[in-house]
Amino acid sequence: MLEDVPRDPFADDPNDPSSAMGALDDAEPLTAAERDEAITDLADVEVFRSLLEPQGVLGLVLDCPECGEQHFFDWDLLRGNLKQMIEKGQPQVHEPAFHPDPADYVSWDYARGYVDGVIDTEERR
């Protein structure tokens, strides 16, 4: 029923407060170097997940340079953000994790070190 759908109170209003936010589609495309870095990060996340998820790790914790706080990303959200950055030049909008247990997440550096340790162990066999 269309009557049940809420109408945008600012539809066609030139003073729409959300207009200050800008259009989401106006993202600058990634440079070749940024795109290559995002592709490398996506590959790293896939490896991290394959080795760490069976150990009970739910995702990564990243320090946010903008707000100075830690953000917890599960594997699917991290993967989705990187794929969208590669395709559209910006990460997807997402909700932060709800009361994440920090013990379930590891840092990027920890994940990288874990992978390096697994590779070193395999090479010594």
How do the strands and helices of this protein lay out in sequence?
Blueprint: H1 32-52, E1 59-63, E2 70-74, H2 75-88, E3 105-107, H3 108-124
Parallel strand pairs: 1-3
Antiparallel strand pairs: 1-2
InterPro entries: DUF5319
Protein name: DUF5319 domain-containing protein
Biased composition (Basic and acidic residues): 1-10
Protein described:
The structure is a single chain. This protein has 125 residues and is an alpha+beta fold. Helix content is 42%, strand content 10%. It contains three helices and three strands; from the N terminus they run αββαβα. Strands 2-1-3 form a three-stranded mixed β-sheet. Helix 1 (32-52) runs antiparallel to helix 2 (75-88). It is elongated, with a radius of gyration of 19 Å.
Mean pLDDT: 83
In terms of quaternary structure, what is this?
Answer: single chain
What form results from the Cα inertia axes? elongated
**Strand proportion:** 5-15%
Estimated helix fraction: 40-55%
Question: How do the SSEs run, as a string of H and E?
Answer: HEEHEH
Structural class: alpha+beta
Q: How many separate helices?
A: 3
**Unreliable spans:** none
Major β-sheet, in short? Answer: 3 strands, mixed
Q: How is the largest sheet built, in terms of strand order?
A: 2-1-3
Biased composition (Basic and acidic residues): 1-10
Pfam family, one: DUF5319
InterPro entries: DUF5319
Region (Disordered): 1-27
Key features of this structure:
single chain, 125 residues, alpha+beta, three-stranded mixed sheet, 3 helices, 3 strands, 10% strand, DUF5319 domain-containing protein
